Amino acid sequence: xxxxxxxxxxxxxxxxxxxxxxxxxxxxxxxxxxxxxxxxxxxxxxxxxxxxxxxxxxxxxxxxxxxxxxxxxxxxxxxxxxxxxxxxxxxxxxxxxxxxxxxxxxxxxxxxxxxxxxxxxxxxxxxxxxxxxxxxxxxxxxxxxxxxxxxxxxxxxxxxxxxxxxxxxxxxxxxx
Length: 176
Known about the structure:
Rossmann fold, globular, alpha/beta, 6 helices, eight-stranded mixed sheet, single chain, disordered N terminus
C-alpha cells in the first residue's frame, strides 16, 4: 500500500471511529425533561402534612433540569399551589422549601442539606445516582437499558413526615 493509501485508510478509520463515538454519546444524552416530569409527579403524589402558601421547589446547583423545572412551574400547580423555583446558594435556605432538588454539581452538599431539613416536611431529591443511600429521600438512577428510574429511601421519607403512595413506590427501587 502506498503512503497516500495508508493516510486515506487511516482517515476513514478515524472517521468511522469518531462517528461511532458520536452515536454512543448521543444515546447517552440525558433527557432532563424526563427528570422534570418525575419531579412534578413527586410533587403531585407525595403527601405532605400541610402546605401553606406557594409550593417552593429549591434547586441547589446548576443543571439543565432547572430550565425544564422553570418551564413546568409556569404551567402547572402542585396540590393546588403555585410552584415557585428558588435557587438555593447555601444549605441554610433548604428548610424553607417543600422540595429540594440537589443537582449533581452540588451533591457534596447533601449531608448539609439534610441537616437543615431534618424533621421538617421537605422532600430531598438528588440528581446523582446512589444518593438515596446517602440520605436523599429520592435519587435518580439510569438502568442498563437506559430507563430512568428513582431510588426510594423510605426511612428518610418517614423521618420527614412524607408519605409515598403505592403508585409511586411501585415505580421506584427501594434502598436499604
